[in-house]
Amino acid sequence: MDDAFAPPGERWVAVSPRLRTMRRTVVVVVAVVIAAIVATACGAAGFAVAAISASVAVLAVAAITVVIVGRNYRSWGYAERADDLLVTHGVLVRRLVVVPYGRMQLVDVTAGPVERKFGISTLRLHTASAGTDARIHGLEAPEAARLRDRLAALGESQSAGL
Amino acid sequence: MTEPARLHPLSPVIRSSRAFASLGALAAYNIWEVRRAGWPALVAVIAIGILAAGLSVLSWAFTRYRIDSGEVRLDSGVLFRRSRRVRIDRLQAIDIVQPLLGRALGLAELKLDMAGGAEGRVRLGYLRLEEAQHLRASLLAMAAGLDHRTPEAPQRPLVQCSGGSIVGGALLSTAALFGFIWIGAFVVAAVASGHPGVFAGGIGGVVSIFTAVWQTIQLHFGFTVAESPDGMRLRHGLFETRSQTVPPGRVQAVRIVQPLLWKIFGWVRVDANIAGYAGHRAEEGHQRNSVLLPVGSRQQALLVVGLVLPGIDIDAIPLTAVPARAKWRSPLRWWTYRAGADDTVIAARSGVFTKVFAVMRHEKMQSVRLSAGPWERFLKLATVHVDSTKGPVELALRYRDIGESRRILDAEVVMASRARAARRPDRWMTSLTPSDPGR
Asked: Which pTM does this prediction carry?
């Protein structure tokens, strides 16, 4: 059934494992902070059992999220073809978008503070349509720059009017 | 090509007329309501009025436009100067708008729409009507790749909507239907309870509905569709008249819509996505400008669609139904989904009460998406979205077999690429050689 989302060639180009590391780190840090606050608050109020169970619950949610992050990471992939770029992602809702190079209006590369720490960035493709949802998370800086320049060049040479 | 020119000196009058009307109404209300506070209020209103008028005169004095080397340039701004240039060959649509006061004074506003929404819009307001028409003709000629002295292209009227059908169509719209049901419910409640006050309570709820119905009537009154080599000409409006010109190839996608009650008279509406009209306020962008035919028979709709998609028989597009198992995904609507494609267009039909048929040329596709949620994948179904520019038309081939969906996606990509390679040039009167790159 996943044939419908099969790559056009041999396999999808995976995004950097640093994306997974980054997201897992964020999840763990946030979970630890929340668990610490909850535990301190409950402990200060004298509910030792509540403090322990709340922390365990928070950490359990974090563990599940870490697994989900891994699956989500594996679902991301892209492929550059002669005339278009394909991007796929999604675990629960599987998505595949095809953007012809000639339709690209602009290519955006962004990196937030956390992404910069991990040396990755996000690439977004914009067309004249608001529906186009083509973004690739977790590209390492050289790959993001290469892809951006290639897409910009191809977009220029294949550009078609509206 | 031309020297920098000013807009018409009466422009500030029209610009501030609406503000004056509402200020006047406010003043009248104030004086009437609080007699004692009348004088100070009146003085304040007059002061504000003079200030506003002064500002709009000042802004007029600092505004110049010129048409030069394939560009329209508009310089404006008193404190912060702004120079806006638009390339004529990127023109998506040209409108001439005449508000009521403008009609009395013989003035009109010329609106140039580029792709990119409100940022890409230039408004030259106000000009003498003949001047606006002349300017439109030469801009269209330049956009077509002809000399700017080319006279205005002749037009051939195609469809004219009668006043009765416009009013009838608005009154039979789904919104109006809810309004009538609402009123009916309150009449029944008032009679049953014996308190007429109950009925009065219901009136408030329908005022907005009927305001919208009235605005539709006023906007579309006297709608005519005409054909010319410059593209499609739409004229409409009861008080404020609007004359739209959409050059050939600028319509991205069309749909034919039939609200439930319109079936009685066999009426349909035709909407379109036009890049220049998107991105403005929803009301202005989508409802005002995107209607190609507000109400008409199916034959009239086919004539209008024929202008947009020349040489295509939309009834001949092979549409197929979705698999029966789609009823588990969309129990109420699965049996209405039909979709298909031929060599030039892709189309989809749906809707139980309001029927919608959307169609788009392959070359206008911006991107294609395939998506399947968990329940859909369990049922081996998926949806293909063919993305168009912003506008009312949305093309989705819903709940088809998942393998077939991927084949549709792949085929669409190939056909779109082939169609783009063979497309006509942006300057539509120049010969059919491939347009230069970078355009």
From this structure: 0.85
